[in-house]
């Protein structure tokens, strides 16, 4: 069975506040480990009132403290925004607090608008990304304890690094460095297959990873019926329309008619970005997962289930886990 993991946006809704959003993320992680999910990742976003994960390492600590076995990490830290030393200090600290449970996914984009990039006051940028990744690896290594400059207490923690990407650049770097690779097909699906081919064909084994490991980001929303799942999915669709409009508001409750909310152009833009989404009943979701894994050979699925109501979101992830088991069973029967 393909490994399942979760990417949580720590959404603030018009019925919650940032604390509630973080507590909901913590509660979801506690449930998810019982449903068999492997990882629970949180993404770094800035200047977005509807997402409460800007202080990503702090939110990771909150989530990890409320669970016991699931791996918790960043999907990802936007490395151009930070000095590698600071990132190593933060994640080295997390590794000591939660041994064997911390992941560090690294992105090359700023994760925000250019005005906010200037407010972050970082002079280096995407051009230094490969060097910054190597610097981070060095801080986490056992040899770091002998360096004049140390990221205390990161030495010897060997926090596993992941390269994130939505283009072929990340695939090439992950292959060259021998690191696991996560592709953001939940919002940028166009280059998915090309990036996977590049990553696998150019992969060089490393101390961290002996063979390629490819994770695929995918939007999946599950409910008891196809119609109800499609209705729940309108929350995410409205968020995309708002993003195109430059309106960074809070998450909205689902509506019955999404076409009354967005324009034809916004619909076309959103559906291009969401084209690999899987939305429906458990049977529909099982079929969608089966097709996606067969097409891509994904080792792991990083699932976004952007559902407005927390109880319904929990139910979505529970149904997804069950559907994935069903898909794995049907694939096994097909092989036999």
UniProtKB/TrEMBL annotation:
Pfam family, one: Bac_luciferase
Assigned keywords, A-Z: Oxidoreductase
Top-level taxon of the source organism: Bacteria
Cellular component, GO annotation: cytosol
Gene Ontology MF, one: oxidoreductase activity, acting on paired donors, with incorporation or reduction of molecular oxygen
InterPro entries: Bact_Lucif_Oxidored, CmoO-like, Luciferase-like_dom, Luciferase-like_sf
Transmembrane segments: none
Annotated Luciferase-like domain residues: 5-299
Gene3D superfamilies named among the record's database cross-references: Luciferase-like domain (3.20.20.30)
Cited CDD domains: Flavin_utilizing_monoxygenases
Keyword Cell cycle: no
Entry's family note: To bacterial alkanal monooxygenase alpha and beta chains.
Entry protein name: Luciferase-like monooxygenase
Protein's organism: Croceibacterium soli
